[in-house]
Every structure is written in structure tokens, then in C-alpha cells.
Amino acid sequence: MMELRLRAWLARCLPWSRAANALRAPLTLGVRLFLADVFFRAGMTKLADWDVTLALFTDEYQVPVLPPALAALLATASEILLPMLLSLGLATRVAALGLFALNLMAVISYPAMPEIARQFHVYWGMLLALLLAYGGGGWSVDRFLLRRLHP
């Protein structure tokens, strides 16, 4: 009796499950493109006025271990290159890990960050963690290459 009810319930849920699965690839693509836009714009802003960027890394941000000029260079390069990978879904987990580390370092190294900005960083971190866990999704170069290498 219980088994019949469970089967009936699963049969009712199956169409919803298929619909949710069909949304996985476009939703993952949307998350990748959203995050790529956020970080790429930040990198372009740093490039637009390098003197201000160096001043911020020297006077405001307290990046541990690295000299300010090197930290600025690495952060800017990461914010420009990793979003490109993320957009394509190429080495998605590597790109997400790099941006996650960059995002975490931004929160750690800038203690005067306003609370609303910190909340945005937490949100971006959660989305990056999802990409770390699940990869680039069905509409990614990673998936294409995986299918080509392991048919």
C-alpha cells in the first residue's frame, strides 16, 4: 500500500523533475555570465586608472604577504582573464576557484568595506561555490570537451 502511494507520488513529480532538469543548463550559463560581468567590470575599472588602483592597494587594502603593486597586478589580471574562462565555461571550476579566492581576499583585506558591499561579496561567493560544486553546466566548453573525449 505504502509502495503504491510512493510510486504514485513519484509519477506526479516526474514532469516537474524533467522541467527542472531542462532549466539546469540555461540557469548555469546565466550564473556564469552574471559573475563574469561583475568581475570583468571590476578588472576594467582597475585598468582604467592604474594610478588610483595602485594607490588603493597601497593605502586602503591590506593584502597580506604580497607587495601592493603585485597584489594589484594579480587581482586585475584575475578579474580580466578568469571571467573570460567563466563565460565560455572553459576550466569553469578553476576559474570559479580563482574568483572565489579573489573575492575572499577582497573581503579580508578591506576591513572598512560597507556592510552592503560585504553582502554582495557573500552572494557572489555562494554562486561561485555552486559553480565549484557543479561545474559549468550543459552549455559549456567543459561539457563539450568532456563529450568529445569520453563519448
What's the structural blueprint in terms of helices and strands?
Layout: H1 2-48, H2 50-60, H3 68-88, H4 92-109, H5 115-134, H6 141-149
Structural class: mainly alpha
- Low-confidence segments, given as residue ranges, are none
- The Rg value, from CA coordinates, equals 20 Å
- How many angstroms separate the termini? 42 Å
Principal-axes geometry comes out as elongated
Helix content: over 70%
Helix-strand topology string: HHHHHH
Account of the 3D structure:
This protein is mostly helical and 151 residues long. 83% of the residues lie in helices and 0% in strands. It has 6 helices and no strands. Helix 4 runs antiparallel to helix 5. The longest helix is centred in the N-terminal third of the chain and has 47 residues, at 2-48. It is elongated, with a radius of gyration of 20 Å.
Q: Quick summary of this structure?
A:
With 151 residues, the chain is an all-alpha fold. Helix content is 83%, strand content 0%.
Core attributes:
151 residues; mainly alpha; 6 helices; 83% helix
